[in-house]
TrEMBL record:
<protein>
    <recommendedName>
        <fullName>BAHD acyltransferase</fullName>
    </recommendedName>
</protein>
<dbReference type="GO" id="GO:0016740">
    <property type="term" value="F:transferase activity"/>
</dbReference>
<dbReference type="InterPro" id="IPR051283">
    <property type="entry name" value="Sec_Metabolite_Acyltrans"/>
</dbReference>
<dbReference type="Pfam" id="PF02458">
    <property type="entry name" value="Transferase"/>
</dbReference>
<keyword id="KW-0808">Transferase</keyword>
<dbReference type="InterPro" id="IPR023213">
    <property type="entry name" value="CAT-like_dom_sf"/>
</dbReference>
Length: 368
């Protein structure tokens, strides 16, 4: 099995925005403050190796990040606490980290093939297990590019007290757009020796018939159906007694639910953790209902992130990611389409073993 022991640091530098910030301090709101104890958000894309030297791509990524940071001044700042105890983001252009490393003994297949995500993947991210409160004296953002034997992993760690998942992917998508360059190669089946013969008076247009356009929309999984299925399956795998009260928590985007509504591009945390309670033997499919508040004794599942986040279309110029990886239990839209979903689940070993022994569940699961 591949090991991370030979992960080699090639370079580490700090990136400044290409324009100085004029944004004043931003006070952390009631939905931001609870995130100070949360770890940095860690998300990254696994890509095939680009067709050009990676060093040239590193330079473009650094330039793209510098331009993107000018649009997101809070990401280049630091947290500070005033004498009254209020916490702010100081947009003071304090730099972010950019790390370039290599792990040429690791192939893309080594990351995709195992049923369990390899333990070394956590080293593909900066600030592993770092609480967001550390943004008082550490960068709010760190980007890490890992060269693999036949691919590249681009990981981003971002302070969770400064952004939620919506803001994270808004930033990351803009970073990708700015960093992407056109492909000027002329190496394709379109290169032919044929010569186009054009009349001296120029080409003429002719429409033979009426053009028609039709669009189709495939049936998609309902988000709540997936969430309830996960809760039910994990509850079964834990083998809890039927009288045990279980808790399912989910992070909910509140931008469009507030009055007045927040802008969909509001930058910061605008999520709330919504709990639902049920006894382990309760069948929600046949008897859906709301339950009174219960206890917090470990019989709980928490789901964050969102299947609506645009993760799989990030193309830096050499193709979409073959997979998304993170350090959290997340649910994403299936990259393959066709009604599939991608699941990255973190459970206790005995619970995971029980889930893998569930033949009904495993019938619908494939490796990825």
């Amino acid at each position: 099995m591949a090991s991370s022991q030979s992960l080699t640091l090639i370079s580490k530098c700090t990136i400044l925005p290409d324009q100085k910030s004029i944004l004043s301090d931003l006070k952390l709101l009631v939905s931001d403050l609870p995130m100070l104890s949360y770890h940095y958000i860690q998300k990254g894309g696994l890509f095939t190796r680009p067709p050009v030297p990676i060093d040239s791509r590193i330079f473009l990524l650094q330039c793209g990040l510098s331009q993107t940071l000018s649009l997101f001044p809070p990401l280049v700042g630091r947290l500070k606490t005033d004498p009254s105890g209020y916490v702010y983001i100081t947009c003071n252009d304090a730099e972010v980290d950019f790390i370039h490393a290599s792990a040429i003994h690791i192939h893309v297949r080594d990351i995709l093939s195992p049923t369990d995500v390899p333990n070394y993947v956590k080293e593909f991210f900066a600030f592993d297990r770092t609480p967001s409160y550390d943004g008082h004296f550490k960068p709010i953002l760190a980007m890490q590019v890992i060269e693999l034997a036949d691919g590249v992993f681009i990981g981003c760690a971002l302070n969770h007290a400064v952004t939620d998942g919506m803001s994270f992917w808004n930033f990351f998508n803009i970073f990708v757009e700015i960093s992407r360059v056109p492909d000027f190669r002329r190496e394709s089946v379109l290169i032919l020796p044929a010569v186009l013969r054009v009349p001296e008076d120029g080409p003429k247009s002719q429409i033979d018939g009426e053009a028609k356009q039709q669009s189709f929309e495939g049936r998609r999984w309902e988000d709540n159906a997936v969430e309830m299925a996960i809760k039910h399956l994990v509850t079964c795998a834990r083998k809890l007694p039927s009288s045990k009260t279980t808790t399912f928590r989910m992070a909910v985007n509140c931008r469009h639910r507030l009055e007045p509504k927040l802008d969909s591009y509001y930058f910061g945390n605008a999520i709330q953790s919504i709990p639902t309670y049920a006894s382990a033997d309760n069948d929600w499919e046949w008897d859906p209902q709301c339950f009174p508040l219960g206890n917090f004794d470990g019989a709980m599942i928490t789901m964050g992130s969102s299947p609506r986040f645009p993760m799989n279309n990030n193309d830096f110029g050499w193709g979409r990611p073959v997979a998304i990886r993170s350090g959290q239990a997340n649910q994403f839209d299936g990259r393959e389409g066709g009604g599939t979903v991608d699941l990255e689940v973190v459970l206790e070993p005995e619970t995971m073993e029980g889930l893998e022994l569930d033949s009904k569940f495993m019938y619908y699961v494939s490796g990825y």
